[in-house]
Specification:
Blueprint: E1 3-9, H1 15-25, E2 29-33, H2 35-38, H3 41-50, E3 56-60, H4 65-74, E4 79-83, H5 86-94, E5 101-106, E6 114-117, E7 120-122, H6 124-135, E8 139-142, E9 151-152
Helix pairs in contact: 5-6
Length: 159
């Protein structure tokens, strides 16, 4: 499989990905799955500028990810799949892009969210998504960088 890491992080392309996860995984491609970025060309351009020229970057709508994975596979690239939301990762999984593990990097606090770790906050729907992926055999862990121990998410609905 051409996908070497699936990561959910609301920041998408940022320093932790470029400076730690890309070298750790040997990735030479970033596949950014976001319907929101599709409608925000300025933000997409800012992210694209941050990526070194040696890394191929693809920005795709969530429903376009399966075709993009096939394209990456044909090119023999090793890609990190980045999603801003857990619900996007589940949509991609249900569309046929199977992955054995899901890395959660950062999900910002917002009203109605529950702290899972100091940098990860879940909505009630996020808990349901992780439960669904876990039932499918996907190992879900919170891990900012490859240099820290992975913390399995703990179900703490309602705080």
């Amino acid at each position: 499989m051409p996908i070497v890491l699936v990561r959910v992080d609301c920041r998408l392309v940022h320093g932790q990905v470029l400076e730690t996860w890309v070298p750790h995984t040997g990735a030479n491609c970033l596949l950014v799955a976001s319907d929101i970025l599709d409608a925000n060309p300025v933000m997409k351009a800012v992210m694209e500028i941050a990526v070194p020229s040696s890394i191929h970057v693809l920005f795709r709508r969530v429903d376009e990810v399966p075709a993009a994975v096939s394209e990456i596979d044909r090119k023999n690239e090793r890609a990190i799949l980045l999603c801003a939301a857990l619900s996007d990762a589940l949509r991609i999984y249900r569309a046929g892009v199977r992955f054995p593990a899901l890395n959660i990097g950062n999900l910002h606090f917002a009203e109605g969210k529950v702290e899972v770790t100091p940098s990860v906050y879940f909505t009630p729907e996020d808990f349901d998504v992780v439960d669904s992926l876990s039932r499918e055999g996907v190992a879900v862990a919170v891990r900012s960088t490859p240099f820290e121990a992975a913390a399995p998410y703990r179900r703490c609905r309602g705080g």
